[in-house]
């Protein structure tokens, strides 16, 4: 056996994107390899290391190595999980800089250009989420159901949006430790 995977995401928007990617087999990991909590959840949608260990890693895995995957927007985040559990042997971070909502700017034609114009406004909050809420009226921009519904029938577009966001973040030098 090659080991198990476990997954922790920052919030509801990240969870929705992970679900679309898992359902459509766009990740290197599959639901079959993921550890679940007692309720059957495949991931924790908060970055609480102690809670994760108590919920997902609360039993013996027979020495089988566990690869932890963490989706977050802080490029400096370092998980304490290896100190809390000897079961986790590897951690990979997936950084969603600037915000996960940047991906949503690619959901509709022209939205990214409107965001660039918005950022030029004096005093405007430069976050994509603020733009989507204040200028586009998307008050549920960070909610699971909104993000899931936005991409569930368009997984190829989601992957393309993620790739375009990754290129943008590399250009802005907002990714740490990124390997092509």
Write the layout of secondary structure elements.
Elements lengths: L3 E6 L2 H12 L25 H8 L9 E7 L8 H4 L3 E8 L5 H4 L6 H9 L8 H7 L9 H8 L3 H17 L9
Parallel strand pairs: 1-2, 2-3
Key features of this structure:
single chain, 180 residues, alpha/beta, 3-stranded parallel β-sheet
Task: Explain what the structure shows.
- The protein is an alpha/beta fold and 180 residues long.
- 38% of the residues lie in helices and 12% in strands.
- It has 8 helices and 3 strands.
- It has helices spanning 12-23, 49-56, 81-84, 101-104, 111-119, 128-134, 144-151, 155-171; strands spanning 4-9, 66-72, 88-95.
- Strand 2, helix 3 and strand 3 (88-95) form a beta-alpha-beta unit.
- Helix 1 (12-23) runs parallel beside helix 7 (144-151).
- The chain starts with a strand and ends in a 9-residue tail after the last helix.
Overview in brief:
Helices cover 38% and strands 12% of the residues. By secondary structure, it is an alpha/beta fold.
Strand order of the largest sheet: 1-2-3
H/I helix tally: 8
Distance between the termini: 28 Å
Category from helices, strands and their pairing: alpha/beta
The number of strands is: 3
Round the mean pLDDT to the nearest integer and report it. 90
Range of strand content: 5-15%
Return the string of H and E elements.
EHHEHEHHHHH
The percentage helix is: 25-40%
Which radius of gyration do the C-alpha atoms yield?
A: 17 Å
Q: Major sheet: size, sense and barrel closure?
A: 3 strands, parallel
């Amino acid at each position: 056996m090659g080991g198990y995977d476990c997954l922790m995401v920052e919030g509801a928007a990240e969870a929705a994107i992970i679900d679309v990617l898992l359902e459509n087999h766009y990740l290197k990991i599959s639901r079959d390899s993921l550890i679940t909590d007692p309720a059957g959840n495949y991931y924790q949608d908060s970055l609480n290391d102690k809670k994760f260990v108590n919920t997902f890693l609360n039993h013996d895995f027979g020495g089988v190595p566990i690869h932890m995957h963490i989706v977050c927007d802080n490029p400096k985040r370092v998980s304490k999980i290896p100190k809390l559990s000897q079961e986790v042997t590897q951690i990979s971070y997936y950084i969603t800089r600037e915000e996960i909502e940047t991906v949503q700017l690619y959901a509709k034609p022209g939205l990214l250009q409107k965001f660039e114009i918005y950022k030029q406004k004096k005093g405007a909050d430069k976050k994509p989420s603020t733009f989507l809420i204040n200028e586009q009226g998307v008050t549920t921009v960070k909610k699971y159901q909104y993000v899931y519904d936005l991409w569930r029938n368009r997984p190829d577009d989601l992957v393309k949006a993620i790739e375009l966001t990754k290129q943008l973040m590399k250009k802005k030098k907002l990714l740490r430790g990124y390997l092509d």
